[in-house]
Specification:
Helix 2 runs antiparallel to helix 3. The two termini are 16 Å apart. By secondary structure, this protein is of the alpha+beta class. Helix content is 28%, strand content 35%.
Length: 116
């Protein structure tokens, strides 16, 4: 089993349930891990035989640009698109941290994790 991951990808986006969150925006941190068994020999040294983390980042960036009310929806969309791109993926885990969420007190971040 191989795991390809990106950790700590930072985005400024406008996800949030409340209208002001979709106007003001905030910072998010995204982690994605993809577990898979190679479909071909990795000794062939071909990017097609693995998960391209540059493409993985692009998927995340594109999904983060689409404003949604719930970060759960964003994470699920990321996982779905990764699965569509890499049919050989056995497990995909997406974590999104929303920095400084609008709560009654000081909170560093709220977080959701989706595993498919």
């Amino acid at each position: 089993m191989i795991t390809i991951a990106i950790h700590g990808a930072e985005f400024f986006a406008y996800h949030g349930f409340y209208p002001e969150e979709q106007i003001l925006g905030t910072k998010f941190i995204v982690d994605v891990e993809v577990d898979f068994m190679p479909v071909n020999n990795l000794k062939e040294d071909k990017i097609a035989n693995t998960v391209d983390y540059e493409k993985l980042y692009r998927i995340v960036a594109q999904q983060m640009q689409q404003t949604r009310k719930l970060i759960e929806t964003v994470a699920q969309s990321i996982a779905d698109e990764v699965k569509d791109k890499y049919l050989f993926a056995d497990k995909i885990q997406v974590s999104i941290k929303k920095l400084d969420p609008p709560l009654a007190g000081k909170v560093d971040y709220s977080q959701i994790v989706i595993t498919v």
